[in-house]
Amino acid sequence: MKVLLIEFSGTGHTTICGNFIGEAFKELGHDVDHFTYKAGKDINPDYNLYDLVGFGYPIHAFNVPEAFNKYIKGLPTLKEKKKYFIYKVSGEPFALNNASSYHIYKKLKKKGFELYSEKHFLMPYNIMFRYRDSIAKQMYLYLKPLTKAFVLEMRDDKPERIKYRFGYKVVSFLLRIEWIAPKLNAPFIHIKQKKCVSCHKCIKECPTDALFINDKGKIRAKSSKCAMCMRCAMFCPTDAITYGFMNLWKVNKPFQFEALVKNKEVPPEYINHDTKGYFKLFNKYFDAQKALLEEYNIPNPVDSYLSK
Ligand SMILES: Cc1cc2nc3c(=O)[nH]c(=O)nc-3n(C[C@H](O)[C@H](O)[C@H](O)COP(=O)(O)O)c2cc1C
């Protein structure tokens, strides 16, 4: 089978998820082509040549990032109907995120894509506040086995479906802050000249090509393009970016997931039934995922980690 994976990713978490999904398909002997959206880079595969397509995105305000929404809108209509699946990544597991894919679901349906399976994976927030390392480690450790289980479910023709309840559709519609928030915020994104080392990583790596050098030699963000994905702020090596009104929601420095795995001083689990407060609410997600792993005889990643 030929599988195509295409995702949008701001700070790389959805790409990691896509990589693991790709590996799981390859382990089953399938061919995989995998692309991460980048404005200006032509990603125009012939969808008709693939047996299965996967679309991935990070949830932004209970929605699909607008840049990816537009990309989907621009896809050609297929010659024949084609099955696809969705992998969505977000910081919290709550049902309010469930209808985030509804807008692309409707668009893809018109183009001949038939939704087959859909799964929501947890990875740390890249906005608002930084998850402690043990939470990031726990989410990352779970990601690989869960992507494997997701792929095995598809192999066994047991697709996962997420219900688009009316209330969630309303929330996702009303909170399409991406329509306005980046437009309002982008003009106020600026660089602290004293800290900037002119590496231009922010300009080069912006997935939507929103950053540019203006005629006064200053780095600025185009409000028509910024997706507010936080990549520039998170990846700036000197923390030189002031993120407009959203500056207090900036999460500095990318998570070094592999280093966290190697670091034995960071526990592999933070969220469990002894956890108190906000993260206690995440147990429902982890319980369901543990049951799924058991069903497929995939070792629990935290137990495996502790036994090494
Ligand atoms: C503008 C913005 C809005 C977000 N909104 C949500 C949200 O509604 N729900 C959620 O669980 N996470 C939300 N997140 C967190 C991301 O979905 C999460 O950090 C994800 O891991 C980022 O993936 P990426 O690295 O592929 O961009 C938001 C992040 C950003 C930047």
Strand content: 15-25%
Oligomer: single chain
Rounded to the nearest angstrom, the radius of gyration is: 19 Å
CATH class of the largest domain: Alpha Beta
Shape: globular
Specify the helix fraction band: 25-40%
Spatial order of the strands in the main sheet? 2-1-3-4-5
Mean pLDDT: 95
Tally of helical segments: 11
The number of domains is: 2
Write down the secondary-structure element order: EHEEHEHEHHHEHEEHEHHH
- Summarize the biggest pleated sheet: 5 strands, parallel
Distinct small-molecule ligands in the complex: flavin mononucleotide
Cα(first) to Cα(last) distance is: 35 Å
The unreliable regions are none
Provide an overview of this structure.
34% of the residues lie in helices and 16% in strands. The protein folds into 2 domains: 2-174, 3-Layer(aba) Sandwich (Rossmann fold); 178-249, Alpha-Beta Plaits (2-Layer Sandwich), CATH 3.30.70.20. A 5-stranded parallel β-sheet has the order 2-1-3-4-5, sandwiched between helices. The chain contains 11 helices and 9 strands. By secondary structure, the protein is of the alpha/beta class. Helix 2 links the parallel strand 3 (52-58) and strand 4 (82-90). The mean pLDDT is 95. It is globular, with a radius of gyration of 19 Å. The structure holds flavin mononucleotide. Flavin mononucleotide is lined by residues 9-14, 58-62, 89-92, 97, 123-127, 228-230.
